[in-house]
Amino acid sequence: MDKQKKDQTTEEKILEAAKQIFLTKGLDGARMQDIADEAGINKAMLHYYFRSKDKLFEQIFIEVVGHFLPKIIAILTSEKTIFEKIEIFCSEYISQVMQAPYVPVFILNEINKQPEAFLKKVLGGREIPVELFLKQLEKETKSGIIRKVDPVELFMNLIALCAFPFVARPIVQLITGKDMKQFMTMMEARKKEIPKLIIDSIKK
After folding, report:
1. Does residue 94 surpass a pLDDT of 70?
2. Most exposed of 49, 166, 193, 200 (fewest Cβ within 10 Å)?
3. What is the pLDDT of residue 88?
4. How far is CA 71 from the centre of its chain?
5. InterPro entries this protein is in (predicted)?
């Protein structure tokens, strides 16, 4: 195996190990030594590939967003109804975050630290076609399908209902007594519960 392929294989191994550690211990609880142990390498080699835990997490995060953002754009630009888009968005968002439940906390931290730089990094020059969604809202309002709604309020409700349980997972688990598997089962059910709640609140 040449050096380039070996480096790629080692880096992939590190990223996969880091995902597992971040998943079980969260960003704050994870240690570089934990990740090195999970990857089956020494800590010095881990630092050779990634200088810090934050740099490692950032790469994983960009990978997650890079996979998810095109799906969001596809949902917004599709020919589906507003109701269908809400259903698909909730399902896709929750499915994605269930695979990386530490991501919403990271997003909140980064947005609070450097909102403009964070958005630039996440979007990578791409634009989210919100204008199409706004025009569809206006059209379906005029058609009597939905009542007049504030798009910002609708967006905030969608994000809050999907993301908050993951952000508050430790306290949710503590209060409810649910373990991680039970928590994930509850999140799976929310894929249908959240769209129903939102749709019931806006339809005529």
Report:
1. yes
2. 200
3. 95
4. 12
5. Homeodomain-like_sf (IPR009057), HTH-type_TetR-like_transc_reg (IPR050109), HTH_TetR (IPR001647), Tet_transcr_reg_TetR-rel_C_sf (IPR036271)
- φ/ψ of residue 157, rounded to 5: -65, -45
> Are residues 147 and 153 in contact, defined by beta-carbon separation less than 8 angstroms?
no
Distance of CA 14 to the CA centre of its chain: 21
Distances (CA, A) of 113 to 100, 106, 118, 181: 21, 11, 9, 32
Among candidate residues 104, 91, 118, the one with its CA nearest the CA of residue 22: 104
Query: How high is the pLDDT of residue 158?
Result: 93
pLDDT for res 7: 63
Token pair for residue 152? Answer: 């910002």
What's phi and psi for 203, nearest 5 deg?
A: -80, 155
Instruction: Give the CATH fold of the 68-202 domain.
Output: Tetracycline Repressor; domain 2 (1.10.357)
What does pLDDT average to over the chain?
87
Cα 163 to Cα 86, 159, 168: the distances in Å are 14, 6, 9
Q: Which two tokens stand for residue 204?
A: 């005529």
Q: pLDDT digits over 41-80, tens only?
A: 999 999 999 988 888 888 887 777 777 788 888 898 899 9
Is-contact 186 169, C-beta < 8 A?
no
Amino acid letter at 109?
Answer: N
Tokens representing 12?
Answer: 């992939």
What letter represents residue 167's amino acid? V
Four-way CATH pick for 9-51: 3.30.43.10, 1.10.10.60, 1.10.3720.10, 1.10.260.40: 1.10.10.60
